[in-house]
Amino acid sequence: MLSFDPGPGLVAGTATTSSLPVRTFRCYLPRYLRTYSCVHCRAHLAKHEELISKSFQGSHGRAYLFNSVVNIGCRPAEERLLLTGLHSVADIFCENCKTTLGWKYERAFEISQKYKEGKYIIEVVHMVKENGWE
């Protein structure tokens, strides 16, 4: 078991199956929750209940806005002129496979965009839905 404390409702540990190699992620989301995972390595990324909006645009198409995510790393923030104005954003990547997934809004310069601060964009092309989406 890892020493990482994943917080309430989250499980830390190692995943194994008989046909797959051992994979250790920083955080595992409970199996009974609908979740989003990295399409490239299946690392858990977010709980469905953390989804704020599906109407965002990423660099490679549609993207979702999340309140919080897990198993991601953050690159240094930089100012970018996006469709909704100037923002300070930091690219985020999967901690397991290092694929760039989207970005974190560090600062919004327009008052109407302040709600995005501290939130995360993950592009749909990099996510897969898991657990109970029938």
Automatic annotation (TrEMBL):
Pfam families linked to this entry: Yippee-Mis18
Keywords per UniProt: Metal-binding, Zinc
GO molecular function terms noted in the UniProt entry: metal ion binding
Domain Yippee: 34-131
Alphabetical list of PANTHER family matching this protein: PROTEIN YIPPEE-LIKE CG15309-RELATED
The family this protein is said to belong to: Belongs to the yippee family.
Protein name from the UniProt record: Protein yippee-like
Protein source organism: Microcaecilia unicolor
